[in-house]
């Protein structure tokens, strides 16, 4: 992920296990999703697989442990209360857990089109599209990207 102020790459990973957090994830979509904990090396560890729409799951975690969610079928980025990466809040002795709603983001038209087209086209198909050349160049550059590279563009 890039820092918007100076374009430096910031590695997302768990830092320590000092301050506890008790949360409840709620699938507020109509999609099955996978929820990942980002470990101390920045690797995605699948915590919930095919988490069903409307379901809730209680998690005991720590404030410096990031979480991400993806659509189980399309691998699209999902959001935690409006954020693509979730850092749990500190537990302050509350009797109840913090409910964190996981939902589908709202994309602008250009990002949504690129998202859909990347699933249907190969790099060789893109030049034949009847769209502006600047978009063709952008699509060609993105067609061979890894998911993490693509994710940076969608989230930014």
UniProtKB/TrEMBL annotation:
<dbReference type="InterPro" id="IPR037140">
    <property type="entry name" value="VHL_beta_dom_sf"/>
</dbReference>
<dbReference type="InterPro" id="IPR022772">
    <property type="entry name" value="VHL_tumour_suppress_b/a_dom"/>
</dbReference>
<comment type="similarity">
    <text>Belongs to the VHL family.</text>
</comment>
<dbReference type="InterPro" id="IPR036208">
    <property type="entry name" value="VHL_sf"/>
</dbReference>
<dbReference type="Pfam" id="PF01847">
    <property type="entry name" value="VHL"/>
</dbReference>
<protein>
    <recommendedName>
        <fullName>von Hippel-Lindau disease tumour suppressor beta domain-containing protein</fullName>
    </recommendedName>
</protein>
<feature type="domain" description="von Hippel-Lindau disease tumour suppressor beta">
    <location>
        <begin position="12"/>
        <end position="89"/>
    </location>
</feature>
<dbReference type="InterPro" id="IPR024053">
    <property type="entry name" value="VHL_beta_dom"/>
</dbReference>
């Amino acid at each position: 992920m890039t820092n918007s102020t100076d374009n430096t790459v910031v590695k997302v990973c768990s830092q320590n296990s000092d301050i506890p957090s008790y949360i409840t994830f709620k699938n507020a979509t109509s999609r099955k999703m996978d929820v990942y904990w980002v470990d101390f090396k920045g690797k995605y560890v699948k915590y919930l697989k095919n988490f069903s729409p409307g379901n809730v799951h209680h998690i005991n975690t720590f404030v410096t442990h990031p979480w991400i969610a993806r659509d189980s079928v399309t691998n699209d980025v999902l959001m935690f209360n409006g954020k693509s990466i979730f850092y749990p809040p500190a537990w302050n002795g509350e009797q109840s857990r913090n409910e964190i709603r996981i939902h589908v983001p709202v994309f602008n038209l250009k990002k949504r089109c690129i998202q859909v087209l990347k699933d249907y086209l190969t790099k060789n198909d893109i030049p034949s599209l009847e769209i502006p050349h600047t978009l063709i160049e952008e699509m060609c550059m993105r067609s061979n990207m890894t998911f993490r590279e693509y994710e940076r563009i969608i989230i930014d």
